[in-house]
Design goal:
Elements: E1 2-6, H1 7-12, H2 14-22, E2 26-31, E3 34-39, E4 44-46, E5 52-54, H3 78-84
Parallel strand pairs: 1-2
Antiparallel strand pairs: 2-3, 4-5
């Protein structure tokens, strides 16, 4: 679950919000109606032995979300290449 709070509320209730993050909640902090920050649980969580391990990664979970274009490894256009080399 995601919890939305404004900046002042986050400042006043940081300890409580931090406790909720440790329980797996995500906190989104807004200021002037715009999202400014997120507090999320760390991907590393202690296991029963007390050592830190990362969550299991799932191969292929984003399959199809990005397609490499056919011209991906073509040479850069001369104007862009010149800008990278400080000539533009």
């Amino acid at each position: 679950m995601t919890i939305h709070v404004d900046r002042r509320e986050a400042e006043q209730q940081f300890s409580q919000l931090f406790s909720q993050v440790l329980q797996g909640e995500e906190i989104v902090i807004f200021s002037n109606g715009e999202e400014k920050a997120r507090l999320v649980p760390s991907p590393k969580v202690p296991d029963d032995s007390g050592s830190r391990t990362s969550k299991m990664r799932v191969p292929g979970i984003d399959k199809g979300r990005f397609v490499v274009p056919d011209d991906f490894d073509d040479p850069l256009p001369s104007d862009i290449l010149a800008a990278f080399e400080g000539e533009g």
